[in-house]
Amino acid sequence: MPLPAGGEIPWPPPELEPVAHKLTEWSAWYSGDSNALTSFYSLAGSASTPTAQRFFASDKSRGAASGPSSPARTFWGAPLDPGTQRTKLHAPLAADIAELSANLLFGEMPKFTSTDGATQKELDAFQTDGMHASLREAAETCAALGGVFLKVVWDQTLSDRPWLCTVSPELAVPSWSWDRLRDVAFWTVLYQDEDDTLRLLELHEVGSISYGLYKGTVTELGERMPLSAYEGTADLADLYGDEGVMLTNLPWLTAAYVPNVKPNRVWQGVRCATNLGRPDIAGLEPGLDAYDEWHTSLQRELRIKKPRIMVPQAMLETDGPGQGAYFNMDREVYAGVMALEERIQVAQFTLAVDEHLTVLEAKFDEIVRSAGYSVQSFGGKGDVAAVTATEIQARKEQSLNTRDQKILYWRPALQHLFQALLGISREVFGTASKPEVGIDVAFPAAVQPSLQDLAQTLTLLVAAKAMSLRLRVQTLHPTWTKAQVDEEVAAIQTEEQASLTAARPASEPPALPQ
Questions:
Q1: Core-most of 64, 174, 334, 358, by most CB within 10 Å?
Q2: In whole angstroms, what is the distance from residue 199 CA to residue 297 CA?
Q3: What is the pTM of this model?
């Protein structure tokens, strides 16, 4: 897929509009921006808009009447009465689910190994160079938006090796060969005003990366311009010319797509989206909307049932005749009472807090379980009594099963990306790595045994002469690199030799080698 020649080309491509629509919805839930939620569901609630007609049209195959149907009522889409303050609250449950997913996957760094010594040295350097944080960031975006793109980037003025950069699926136009990513174009808005929009397109293909600068409008790509025409892309022109083509000389893409979970039930039949993943909250948007409504209702319960005092009319002050009357919800003295006794009365209302909390807990459990996680993973009831790793694993079984499912997509993507990283490291930075030999990716166990349990296990294996010193160190420190393991083994051997020397009598000659 070459870069577009430019002109009156709609951008983003119209065929991606169904994808962009859902990504906008999921992004609003993930960000927790109440304005974004209100904007999205207010638009969706208007059946007169083209977007509403497209996505909420009646399904004749289900026996519905022809013409656009009314979308379901939503809490965030309900309009406010004129003069009413917005009191809607958002609970960041969608963001919490995405964060949990990232922590389960990359709470500890996966271990990358190669049979080639020089390649292993480079892999060890990548693992200790901020890669852990980058992968965790990508995993959170992946869980929130249904998938994530990762691309290999480098800058010889900043680092002596390439690294991985996360790209949201909202800013990508992928091309597929069956279910495999063939190439992908990322786009970035460099400048925008009322008249013009300046975009940079970055096309990743096998063997090359191409850059294109376009000047258009908010909805059109516009004409293609030389990279040297804009200060922000002049450095690319210096490196690759105005055509912006960089040959990688690699048999792999320098980008990859990682789906969160498949298949995607949302885009069945949408050809351009069948290979995209689904987020953890797919299909749970009505539940999240209801959860926010009950969360807001609880806050409203506390607000309108605050204790009040009522005083005789004679004790109140006015602003003067003809000034009108108004009601202030935050005013502690809020009503005058004509009474024989000149005394102040206190009104204490009964709060329905327990009822709200019961509903919220039930809604929370339902959403979390449907997203594929155990309630205990969020610090729910029952964690205090869990002592051993086996008990914790049993209580969080659903979360761990979901983690295992996601690893099936992450492992091959990371193998591909690290091969590309090693290839760029060799071609651009001149290292001696050999990515062709292959890379193995091992994810550590999500639930680690306690040091006491692990020590008892290692002691039994040593007594049975079933485990070497190196394997003991690797078992105790599964995320260590080969260099760290070698250093620890050497230190232990030195200490053991020193202890034997100190324990041997001075008259006893040293033992001859066997």
A1: 174
A2: 44
A3: 0.81
